[in-house]
Each structure stands twice: as structure tokens, then as C-alpha cells.
Amino acid sequence: MLTTELDEFIVRMPKVELHIHLEGAIAPRTLLELAHQNGVEIPARDVAGVEQLLRYRNFNEFITVFMTMARVIVRGEDFARLAYELGIDLATQQVRYAEVMISPMQHMRRGMDLYEAISGAAEGFAQVQRETGTQIRIALDHGRQYGPDMAWQVLDVARKARPLGVVGWSIGGNEIGFPPEPFAEVFNAARAAGLGLMAHAGEVVGPESVWGAIESLGVSRLGHGIRSVDDPRLLVVLAQRGVVLDVCPSSNLRTGAVASWEAHPLRKLYDAGVLVTINSDDPTFFNTTITEEYRRSVTHFGFGADELSAMARNAARSAFLPPVERAALCAQVDAGIAALRHELGV
Ligand SMILES: [Zn+2]
Fold first, then answer.
1. pTM here?
2. From the CA of 295, how far away is ligand 1's center (Å)?
3. Which residues of the chain have pLDDT under 50?
């Protein structure tokens, strides 16, 4: 039950967000301003219009809206603005560390220079760190429908951009019809370049997609991974290997990946001993925040302070940071949680 104390704990607890897309976090007002400033036509005139657009009914409609919206982001400075606004929002929610994904093809296929986009985002995040102490790193999330050849081009930029804070490499986009296996070599190269590996998998496709991601790509984290629940052997393997599922409950409801809160497998995954984390995915599109996702984990799955703390710790422990920095983050999160639980008696 979401008591007043537990709610305060959720609001104030130090958090780590590992699954969030920069383009999906754009504030409706910023979206309108950028569209106007950059002369990009979008099918909305005001905030209410943007909200109307966000009422898509399924995963395909969601991807279409996402792609339409991404067009308003044109210059490096637009990325800096988005990054700064998102970072401040996360810092306000007591997020101490986040990995934010950029969808390279959304911008490259419009002729944007990906390095300029990443530099802009890095600048915005650096300013957030100076002002709040919250650290934000970048992951590139390649749309699988664009294939492995394009992925190599993206990876080239990722390698050059590592000093700007690019720490993660991922595939996302259309899971149906685009299995993980053809990306195996790209992932090997990404690993050799020192990038942390993850993949959106088991979101709308079943366990075979997750098997592919862990066996062929060797990822240590999965975006969603919720369909793993359909394969008991897979659950055992995930738990044994410590593969982390970055779960985004409201996203799954809004895209129709899961039919209802009752049907969402988060509790089953947790109870099977799989390491899970709580994330917002695309806060603007799904009308949520990481804080709200923690709240919903209490109201819909019955988690208490122990479990919420464990999920926040899982996130800190699986951050794609160098070991010394990761250890410092874990210590900070652990100490913050312990102090808060003591203070609030939860
Ligand atoms: Zn995602």
C-alpha cells in the first residue's frame, strides 16, 4: 500500500534511470517551440494538440508519432536544450545517475551530423552535472529496422564520441521481423570499443528474442525483456547470469505490449530472482516519470521499501560506468537509501 511515508520515500530516494530516450522525453512546450523555430510542420498547434497526438493506440502508431516528433530536433543546440531540460527534471526527482538513449537513425536519415547531436546532448548533460551533481551518460540505440550496415556507421561515430560520455550501445525500434542475430558482429565491435551492451528485446516478441540478445549479442542488460516470463528456463538463465531487465511498466501498458496492469509480469520476474530495474522509457509519450513508475510499482505490484530499494540498487550496480565510478555511485545510493529509511521508518 502506498502510505504517506512510502510515497515520501519514493519521492526522496536516490534513483538511477537506465532506460530513457532523449527524444521521448521532450516537453510538449519545447517540442512546439523547436518546431516553430526550425520551421518544421507538425500535426499539432498547441500543448493540447501535442497531447492529442500522443493518444496512439498501439506500438506501430507509437513509433510513427515518435518519428514525427523527432524531426523537430535539428541542431546541436536543440539537443543541448533537450538534454539540459531532461537532466534538470531527473535531478529534481533525485536521480543521481542516468543513461539516456539517442536514436541515431532518426536524425542521420534527415542529414543531421550524429556527432554534432551527441556533442550537443553532452553539453546539456555537463551543465546539469555542474549545477546539480547528477551524472548523465549517453547510449546510442540503433533502430534494428535500419539493419546492421547502418549500425556500423553509427558505431563509428559512437567510438569517436566516447570521450563525450557515450557509454552504451543498444538496438531498439521494430522488434517484429528484425531479430537480434544479424547484429552479433556489430555488438562484438561495440564491446571491443569499451561500450556497455544492451538490447530492446522481449517487449513485443517472445522469449526467442531475449535468447538471441543474450546468446548472440552478449548483452548484460535488456530493455523490457518482460516476455521472458513465458519461458521458465530463460528465467533461470537470466537470474544465474545476472542479466538485468530494465522494465518500464507504463510504457508496456501504453504501447499495448501488455494488456493490463494485472497481466504485467514485473512481479513474477522479480519473484523468479531476475534482476529488474524501474524506468520511464519515454516520459512524454507515456505521461509518466521514474518517480511515478516507482509509485505504480507499489500500487499495482505490491512492492514495499525493501523491494524498491533493491531495484534502485540493481540499477546502480549495472550502470555502464568504469568500476571505480560505479562503486562510488552504489555507495551513494546505498547510503542515501539507508539514511532515508531510518528517517522515515520505512
Ligand atoms: Zn526503450
1. 0.96
2. 20
3. none
